[in-house]
Every structure is written in C-alpha cells, then in structure tokens.
C-alpha cells in the first residue's frame, strides 16, 4: 500500500486507463440493449400483421370465391361499362320519372347532373322536383329502392305545397319534394 501513496499520480493514470475500457464496455452494452429493445418492439409491432397475412394465406381460396360472388352481385347493382354515360343518364332519368309518375306524383322538373368520376365508378345523378301526396311519395321511394341497377337517394327536401285558401279539410296534404338520385356505372 505504500507504493500507492508514493506513486499517486501513476496509480491515478493506471486506474483511469483501466476505467476507460470498462466505461466503454458498459456504454456499448447499454447501446446494444437499446438496439435490441427497438428491434423487439418492431417485431412485436409486426406480429399482428404477419398473423393477418398468415390467416389470409390459409383462407385464400375461400376469399377468392367470396370475391367472385361479390363481383357478380356488384354487376347486378351498377350499370356496365359497355353502356355510354349519356345513354345511362338518359335511361336513368326516364326510368326515375316513370317510377314517380306511376306512383301518382307529378314530375315538375327533372335534370341530369354532370357525371362525376370517382375510383372505378361514374356517379350519375338526376335531380327531380315532384309534387303530390305523402303516400304517393312513399310508394315512389319504394319503387326507387326496388329498381335495379341500384338507385340511391343522395338528398331529399320535402316541404308542404302551397294551397289555395278555403280548400276542403278532408283533402290529403299536398307536398313538393326535391330529390337528387344517384346511380353508378363502371368506368373501367
């Protein structure tokens, strides 16, 4: 122990020389543990995705059959790509006018709106203004719901129609409705 007292500076330099690799070793170990923790977190994040992909692989045949079934059902609900936009628009306007007229409503205005292309479909819209009774409007909307290719009611405003004063009390309430109807056509 007397050597340490005599050579304190040398002992300090030797101690620091031995301590520096130990500190470097500890730093490297903590860095490696941090990298390992990050990699483990990434693996844990990827496990659910891999499980989903594995499930898709296992049920690939069933999913293909379901996709074919859905595609065939979609073909019944939309206008085919073989029909022109103008033809589909005119046909939709005519059919919708007929549905509302047969229900007992008078169509006072109908207008084909510009076609919007979004994704794989063309959105074909018709705007109608009709007047009549509430039961007739209900019947017309049921007819629209049953029509194929599918026609959706995009917007509808209903308000009571103006009537002359002194009308009979037993008459049904007359109304006017403004509807915007939408149908889809394959764009591919």
Per CATH, what is the topology of the largest domain? Alpha-Beta Plaits
Give the % helix.
55-70%
Please report the distance between the alpha carbons of the first and last residues.
92 Å
Could you state the order of secondary-structure elements as H and E?
A: HHHHEEEHEE
Which CATH first-tier class of the largest domain would you pick?
Answer: Alpha Beta
Overall form: elongated
**If helices are DSSP runs of H or I spanning 4 or more residues, what is the number of helices?**
5
- Unreliable segments of 5+ consecutive residues: none
Number of strands: 5
Q: For the report, how would you describe the main beta sheet?
A: 5 strands, antiparallel
Mean pLDDT, as a whole number?
Answer: 89
User: Judging by the overall fold, what is the CATH architecture of the largest domain?
Assistant: 2-Layer Sandwich
The CATH homologous superfamily name of the largest domain equals Ribosomal protein S6/Translation elongation factor EF1B
Count of all domains: 2
- The helix-and-strand class reads alpha+beta
> What fraction strand?
15-25%
The whole-angstrom Rg is: 37 Å
Explained architecture:
- This protein has 188 residues and is of the alpha+beta class.
- The protein folds into two domains: 2-58; 85-163 and 172-186, Alpha-Beta Plaits.
- It contains five helices and five strands, in the order H-H-H-H-E-E-E-H-E-E.
- It has helices at residues 2-6, 8-58, 60-77, 85-102, 134-146, and strands at 106-112, 116-118, 121-133, 151-160, 174-186.
- Strands 1, 2, 3, 4 and 5 form a five-stranded antiparallel β-sheet that branches.
- The chain is elongated and about 120 Å long.
- The model has no long low-confidence stretch (mean pLDDT 89).
């Amino acid at each position: 122990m007397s050597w340490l007292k005599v050579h304190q500076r040398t002992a300090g330099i030797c101690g620091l020389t031995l301590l520096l690799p130990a500190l470097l070793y500890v730093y490297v170990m903590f860095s490696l543990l941090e990298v390992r923790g990050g990699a483990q977190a990434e693996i844990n994040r990827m496990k659910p995705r891999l499980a989903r992909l594995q499930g898709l692989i296992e049920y690939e045949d069933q999913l293909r059959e379901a996709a074919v079934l859905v595609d065939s059902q979609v073909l019944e609900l939309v206008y085919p790509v073989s029909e022109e936009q103008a033809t589909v628009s005119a046909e939709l306007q005519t059919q919708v006018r007929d549905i509302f007229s047969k229900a007992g409503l008078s169509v006072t205005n109908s207008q084909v709106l510009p076609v919007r292309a979004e994704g794989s479909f063309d959105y074909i819209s018709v705007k109608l203004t009709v007047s009549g009774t509430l039961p007739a409007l209900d019947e017309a909307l049921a007819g629209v719901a049953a029509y194929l290719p599918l026609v959706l009611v995009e917007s509808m405003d209903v308000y009571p129609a103006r009537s002359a004063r002194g009308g009979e009390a037993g008459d049904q309430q007359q109304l006017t409705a403004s509807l915007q109807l939408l149908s889809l056509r394959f764009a591919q």
